[in-house]
Amino acid sequence: MAVRNSSSSRPRPRRATAPARGLEPPALAGLNPEQLAAVTAPLGPVLVLAGAGSGKTRVLTLRIAHLVASGAPPDSILAVTFTNKAATEMRERLARVLGPDAAARTVVGTFHAFCLRVLREHGAALGLPAFTLCDAADQLAAARAVLRDLRVPEQHVAPAQLQARISLGKNRLQRAEDQDDDLLRRGWLAYDEHLRRNRQLDFDDLLLAALRLLEERPAVRRALQARYRHVLVDEYQDTNRPQYEIVRRLAEKHHSLFVVGDDDQAIYGWRGADVTRILGFAQDFKGATTVRLQTNYRSTAGILEAANRLIACNVGRHEKTLRTALGDGDSPKVVPQADEETEAAFVAQDIAARLAAGARPAEFAVLLRTAVQTRPFETALRAAQVPYRLVGGPSFYDRKEVRDVLAYLRLLVDPDDEAALLRIANTPPRGLGKASLDRLVADATAAGRPVAESFDRAASVEGVTPVAAEAASGLRATLRTLGARAAAATDLVALVRETLNAVDYRAEIERCPTPEERAARIAGVNEVLNVAENLQRRGATSLRELLDRLTLKEQDDRTAEAPGERVLLMTLHAAKGLEWPRVYLVGCEETLLPHQKSIDTDTVPEVRRLMYVGITRAQRQLTMTFAATRSRYGSRSPTLPSRFLYEATGQAPPPQWRPAPATGEGRGRRGKKPPAQRSASG
DNA sequence: AACATCGCTATTTTT
DNA sequence: TAGCGATGTT
To answer: Active-site residue A382, yes or no?
Structure first.
C-alpha cells in the first residue's frame, strides 16, 4: 500500500547502546535506551507502553530475535496481532531479522487465526470435530433467520443490531442466559442454536471455543503451554476479555509474556476491547516489567504538542508524553469553514496547491469521523483533479460472485452447510424458485433435519414443483461428486475451476445485463482463483484450509494492492497504525467529533483517543477543519467547534474560528470552556 | 422475477 | 438526503 508502516523509513535514533548478550550487535545497534530496555527486558511479564510512532513493531520483532538469540527455539514463539496486515508485516520483518527459515518456524498470526489453528488441532477434545467458519454475512443471515423464527417484526430490531449485540456480549465474555433483555437473550440462544445446527463457528466463537479448550481440557492446556513458551501480543489495548483470558492461560505456566500497546490509542471499546487490561497489566501479572517508549520518530514538535495536550485531558491513563526525535516543524493549523462543501473544497484546493508546488499525492491523507462525510470530499477532489482513493467500503469478499464461489466450495467441505446451500440453490437459475425453496426449508425445520436432506427428497416434499425437485436433488448429486473429488484434491486451483464448470457458474455471469458487469464478475472469479493460488503456494494443502484462510481474509489486499500516487481518504479508525507527511483531520465539530452518540453514551474519552490517533498520524503537516453549518439527515444546522480543538491547542476559540456563515446563523461561542452541547440533529 | 414505492433510520468495523 | 428492506405492481 502507499503508506509505509512505522519505523522502516524514518531516521534511526543515533546512539548505539551496548549489545545485549546473545544478539548480534547490528540488530540492536540504533535502538534508543527505552527500546533497548524493552527488547532486553528480563524474561517474564513485560508491558511495553508504546506511544504513537515510537517504533513498537521494531521492538516486538527484535524482542523475538532476542529470545531466539538467547536460546528459545523459534517454534516456541507465538506472536498475536489483531489484523492480518500487522501479522504479515511482522512476518516480513522477522524474516529479515531471523532469516527466512527460523522466521517460518515462529507462529505469527491474528488471534482468530491462532484460535482456529488450535481448534483444528485439538477441537475434537471439546466434541468439535468439524466446523466451518461463519463469516459476517452468515452471521447476519443467522440473525435474520432467528428474528424470523421468533416472529419479531424486523422493524423493531434490525438483524444487524441483534448480531452486534450478541457479538458484543460474547466479546465481553457474557452468557446468553444472563441477558436481561428478553429479546437479546432469546435471540442469542436461538442464534447459537442456529450456528450449532449448521456446525458453524462465528469469529467470536473461535475465541470462546479456544478459551474453553484451555480452561476445560488440562491436557490440551499443558500441550499448548509447552508448545508456545513465549507469547507476544501486539496492540494489547485492543484485547477483549476472551483474548485476555486466552493469553493469560497460555502464559500462566512460563510467564514469558511480552505485550505492546498504548492505552491512549484504545479506540475499539465499542466492540468489546477492554482498556482496563492494559491499565491493570502490572496487577494481573506479578513481577511485570513496564517500559515506556516515549520517543517519537514520526512527527515534528508542534504536532506532538497538540497530541500531548489533547490526551492529557483524559484521566486514568498510563501517563506518557511524546518527545519528538525530529525538529520543530510547523504548528498544526485550524481552519474554519462555512459548510461541508467549502470544507471539502478548501482541502482539495490546498492539496492541489501543494501538489503544484512539488508534493506527491501519496504524502496526503484526509481523515474523517464517519463514512457519510466522504461524499463532498470525493466531489471536491475530483473537481480539483487530485487523484485519490477511498479506503474502506465493501471488501472484495463481499462481492456477489466471490461469495457464490465460496459458498460452492464450502458445500464441498460440508454438504450440509445451510447458509451456503440456500445461497447458491438457484444460482445460476435452475428452476428452484423462492416458493419451492421455502417449502424445502419448512420441511427440514418441521422434520428437524438439515435442509440438504430435504433437497435429496425434494420430489416427495409437498408444494415443490417437479422442476424444482429435480433441480434440488440434481444439485446435491453434483455437489456429492465434486465433494468426493475435493477430498483427494491436490491442486486446489484446478478443483475450484472444475467446480465452477460443473455447476455452470458461467450461466450466472451471463445473466448480467451489461458487458461491464459481466467483465467485473469474471474479474472477481479470477481474483478468487489468484488468491487461491497464492494461498496454495503459501502452504494451504486442503480445501478446508483454503476456505479457512479465505474466510479469515488472510489475503485481503484491499489496502495492500494498487499503491500508486493517490491521496487517501478514510475514517479515523481505518487510519490507525498508518502515517503520512500531511494529514487533514476534518469535521472537527461537536456532535460529529465527538459524535452525538458518544456524548450520549459517555464515551467521549474514547473519541478523544480517536482524535489523538488522528493527530499522531501526521508527520509534518496537520490541518484540522470544521464547518460552521453541516447538513445532516437532510437538514442543515449550525455547529460548534469541537472541544478537542480547544484542548489540543490550549486556546479559547480565537475570533477567526468563528466564520460568519452565509446564512448568518451559527455564531461561534466565545469563552475558554468547551462549548455546551447542542443537538445538531433536527 | 424484475421493478416501483413507501417508510424508516441515520458512528466507528476486524476477524 | 439517501439507502435499505418490505411490500406492492407489472
So the answer is: no
